[in-house]
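TA notes. Do not distribute before section.
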Amino acid sequence: MAQIKAVVETLKKLLKSQQLTYAEIARRLGMSEANVKRMFASRRFSLERLEQICHLMQMELSDLFQLYEESRQQVTQLTQEQERELVSDTRLLLVAVSVRNRLSFNEIITHYNISETECIRHLARLDRLKIIDLLPNNRIKLRISEDFRWLPNGPIERYFEQQIQAQFLKSGFRLAGQQRLFIFGLLSEASHQVMMTKLQLLAKEFAELQRQDALLPLDKKENLGLLLALRPWEFDLFQPMLRR
């Protein structure tokens, strides 16, 4: 029953992401809305009905089960050695980021200037690092969980600080699809904790949307960077004026 519940929860998240309501499902399947609600509440679906609902989202039944399986992964963090190996080889890191973004083998070699042989070699290294399972026909199965995090002050975070952070922020953030918000003010400890929780929830939502969009073709997606930061802070120029 636990597996059935998890599959149905995965299905409900996908429907929500595509804004498909119970009423719309009922209309398109020729059912009453009450029957659809009852079907989801009881979690009793025939395979034929489950397949019909998947087709409403332009998905195969196997796609639903694949997304469910990915949601069960257990790897939440890498070791120091694993992170160090990733940052020691730029092209390995490129392939690692690509599979983290759920690109297929064909999408990687089409989108980037990397040969089939080299890509397979890097995928095999990621398999040995327990980041993916490299399956027959170069299919890729991620082994990292949705709440995956880099090691605090680990090789990847230091690489980000040294190589990526300044480049990412070197923008006016004025074009369409860009936004930069910087807010500061006095908050209580309780309000501080509320903001910390909201940032964590936003990060989880980003990961969930990325997982749901994995089945879309590559030309329907774009790389996005989201930087979240919150800490006690005082403007450097004000420091000399503080009364100690």
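Switch to the second chain here.
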Amino acid sequence: MEKIRIEGERVYLRSITYEDTDMIVAWRNQENVIRYFFYRGEFTKEGHLKWMKERVETGEVVQFIVCMKEDDRPVGCTYIRDVDRVNNKAEYGVFLGEEDVRGHGIGKEILNLTVDYAFNVLKLHRIYARVYESNKPSLYSFLHCGFKQEALLKDDIFADGEYHDVVILGRLNTD
């Protein structure tokens, strides 16, 4: 896997490695992270290693660890998944595993850095995201960063004993 580092103002993105596995598993199993994922099952080390081998190593997913510039501390993860080279599109995802960095505006910086990489390095034409309609901070970040709401899928996901609406947002390289 290619080693990449993308510099931002407060954060930088670096290529994920197999050494990040335990940290990713711990983050993904936190209740405040799980509730925003569509997949709600237990996230295991074996599952993550399979993801790395079958998805990241093959280029179907480009995944980065988000680190704070001030102290090089890993705080989350961002990724471009299901890279479709026929249609030049992919899905964007992000999560912050460290509670103390949430709500401080770094989500927009992470989003912009990742989308810039997708458009300018991967040469993708379209990036899209699926977000729970109730996740207002994420929706705000996407809209603030040039994404447009493309659809609202009513009762699309059944989780925590109830149905949830999902918003599809997209951004074109020409926007």
